[in-house]
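Budget justification aside, the reviewers requested a transparent look at the raw inputs and outputs of the sequence design task funded under Objective 1. We therefore reproduce one unedited record. The lines immediately below are the C-alpha cells for a 287-residue chain.
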C-alpha cells in the first residue's frame, strides 16, 4: 500500500507548493534509496499553483474543462456552484483514479501523475453547507484508498487554512511535512499545525509530522532554527537535512524551472541538497 504525505503549514509564505512540487518530482525522477517509485501528487489548493508548476496553460485548461481536477473527487456536479451554499453530492462514489489523473513523467519502473486543482475549489472553501459534508469526506477517503493501491507515494499539497481540505487531508495521511522558513512567528505556525494534527477523530491514528526547514542559509544556522530544534515539543520531528536557499529552487512554471533542469548558479549543489532531503523523507516515512 502506498504512503500518503501531506505538505501543509497554517502559516503562508513558507514555500509549501514549491516544496511539494520538488519532492514529488525528485521522488519519481531519482530512485531514492535505490527504489523506483510510482508517485501521485494532488493539488488540493484553490490557488492551483502546483498545477501551474507542472502544466502548460493550454494543457491545464483542457483538463479543467474535462473536469479532471480534485473538485470532481469531492462533487459529482459542479454546474451550479454557489459561494454561499455548499453543494453536497448525492453520489458517494468518486471517479476512478485513472479517469482524472494526468501523466507528467515516465521512467523505468517509475512515473509521476498529477491531479490538478481549480479555482472553483474556492466554492467548497467558502460555501456554507446546509447539509452534512460526510459524502464529500467519504468520496475523498475512497479516492485515496484507490490511490494507495496504485502508487508508492501520494503527496497532497494542501492550502494553508483550516477547512474541509485540511480535515480530509490529515484524516487520510500517514505523514505531514511542515515546511518552515526560520523567521519570526515560525514557532507559532508549527504549534498550530501540531494542534491540527492532534485534533483528528478519536480512535484514529495521527499522521507523523516532519518539520522541514526551507530557504535556510547555505553557511549559517539561524537563531530561529536553533530555537525550534531545541524545543522539546518539536525537536524529535525536525528533519536533519534542510532545503537551502538556492535560486534553482525558484518557483517552476509550465513544467520548466525545476532544480533538476536548472542552469542557474549552484544548480548542481541545489540538486544534491534536494536529493538528500527527499532521501531522508523516504527513509523517515518508509515510502
Amino acid at each position: 500500500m502506498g504512503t500518503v504525505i501531506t505538505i501543509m503549514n497554517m502559516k503562508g509564505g513558507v514555500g509549501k507548493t514549491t516544496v511539494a512540487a520538488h519532492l514529488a518530482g525528485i521522488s519519481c525522477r531519482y530512485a531514492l534509496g535505490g527504489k523506483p517509485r510510482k508517485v501521485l501528487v494532488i493539488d488540493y489548493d484553490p490557488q492551483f499553483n502546483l498545477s501551474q508548476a507542472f502544466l502548460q496553460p493550454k494543457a491545464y485548461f483542457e483538463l479543467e474543462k474535462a473536469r479532471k481536477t480534485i473538485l470532481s473527487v469531492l462533487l459529482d456536479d459542479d454546474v451550479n456552484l454557489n459561494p454561499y451554499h455548499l453543494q453536497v453530492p448525492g453520489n458517494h462514489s468518486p471517479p476512478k483514479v485513472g479517469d482524472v489523473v494526468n501523466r507528467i513523467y515516465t521512467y523505468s519502473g517509475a512515473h509521476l501523475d498529477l491531479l490538478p486543482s481549480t479555482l472553483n475549489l474556492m466554492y467548497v472553501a467558502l460555501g456554507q453547507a446546509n447539509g452534512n459534508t460526510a459524502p464529500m469526506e467519504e468520496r475523498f477517503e475512497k479516492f485515496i484508498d484507490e490511490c494507495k493501491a496504485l502508487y508508492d507515494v501520494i503527496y497532497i499539497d494542501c492550502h494553508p487554512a483550516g477547512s474541509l481540505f485540511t480535515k480530509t487531508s490529515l484524516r487520510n495521511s500517514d505523514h505531514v511535512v511542515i515546511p518552515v522558513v526560520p523567521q519570526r512567528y515560525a514557532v507559532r505556525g508549527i504549534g498550530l499545525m501540531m494542534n491540527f494534527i492532534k485534533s483528528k477523530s478519536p480512535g484514529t491514528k495521527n499522521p507523523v509530522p516532519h518539520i522541514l526547514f526551507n530557504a535556510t542559509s547555505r553557511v549559517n544556522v539561524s537563531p530561529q532554527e536553533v530555537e525550534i530544534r531545541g524545543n522539546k515539543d518539536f525537536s524529535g520531528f525536525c528533519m536533519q537535512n534542510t532545503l537551502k536557499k538556492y535560486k534553482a529552487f525558484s518557483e517552476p512554471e509550465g513544467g520548466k524551472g525545476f532544480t533538476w533542469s536548472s542552469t542557474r548558479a549552484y544548480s548542481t549543489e541545489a540538486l544534491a541538497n534536494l536529493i538528500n532531503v527527499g532521501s531522508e523523507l523516504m527513509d523517515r516515512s518508509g515510502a
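Strands lie at 3-7, 38-44, 102-107, 110-115, 153-158, 175-180, 208-216, 243-244. The chain has a mean pLDDT of 90. Computational costs for records of this kind are itemized in the attached budget.
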